[in-house]
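step=encode ok
step=design start
structure_in=
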């Protein structure tokens, strides 16, 4: 089994930086890696996670995300 490769292009970088900026202005600092993961998933995949950061990103981005309960 393999995982699909999702490209990192200029749009991904711009989205991640814009979301990071918007969240920073609200006093919410998130890891850059989480911003990139969310930006790559935008309109390409549902982000299934156990990380509250993706719920925070969803406040400013139209990402499809679902939190798994432990």
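sequence_out=
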């Amino acid at each position: 089994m393999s995982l699909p490769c999702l490209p990192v292009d200029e749009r991904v970088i711009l989205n991640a930086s814009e979301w990071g900026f918007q969240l920073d202005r609200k006093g919410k600092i998130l890891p850059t890696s989480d911003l990139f993961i969310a930006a790559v998933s935008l309109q390409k995949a549902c982000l299934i996670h156990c990380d509250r950061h993706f719920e925070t990103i969803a406040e400013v981005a139209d990402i499809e995300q679902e939190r798994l309960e432990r």
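step=design ok
step=annotate ok -> Residues 50 and 68 are 5 Å apart (CA to CA).
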